Amino acid sequence: MTRPVDSGVILIARLALAVLFLWGGVMKLLGYAGFVSYLQAQGVPFAQIGAPVATAIEAIGGLLLVVGFLIRPLALVMAVYTIATAIYGHDFWNVTNAAAQHDMVIHFWKNVGIAGGFLLLFVTGAGRISIDAARTPRRHLR
């Protein structure tokens, strides 16, 4: 059981994560052809399939984070997705330019940190300020 302050902090964490993914999903939608080209240039296998999947995960996942719906399974999906994007999108080990490599290292480990946040969200759940909490039957104390 979480305290009210814990649920407020969990809500803030969900919103902070959601902003990143909602923004990313919208940008992918607005520049969809460029996103597909980027994936192909990165050597991502099945870029034509990966692009709509990535866009949906970011946009829909971001919305689900905001409202707190299906947070535990969503957190696992988002953690795996974030690690996959670190590996395919921030592959610093393939970059030869020192400045670009430094930038890629930062983004790679940022993604690993975000995945860690999703794993914590998996453990804590959505908190009381969520659809998940509203859907959970309450035990009445007598």
Topology:
Elements: H1 4-30, H2 32-41, H3 47-67, H4 71-89, H5 98-124, H6 131-135
Protein name: DoxX family protein
Membrane topology: Multi-pass membrane protein
Organism: Trinickia fusca
Structural class: mainly alpha
Total count of helical runs of at least 4 residues? 6
Total domain units: 1
Shape: elongated
Helix content: over 70%
Largest sheet: none
* Terminus-to-terminus distance: 18 Å
Q: Which parts are unreliable, with pLDDT below 50 for 5 consecutive residues or more? A: none
Overall pLDDT: 90
**Whole-number radius of gyration?**
17 Å
Give the number of DSSP strands: 0
Strand content: under 5%
Q: Write down the secondary-structure element order.
A: HHHHHH
Verbal overview:
The structure is a single chain. The protein is an all-alpha fold and 142 residues long. It has one domain (4-132). The chain contains six helices and no strands. The chain has helices at 4-30, 32-41, 47-67, 71-89, 98-124, 131-135.
Quick structural gist:
The protein has about 140 residues and is mainly α. It is about 75% helix and about 0% strand.
Please supply descriptive tags for the structure shown above.
mainly alpha; DoxX-like_oxidoreductase; transmembrane; cell membrane; 142 residues; membrane; DoxX
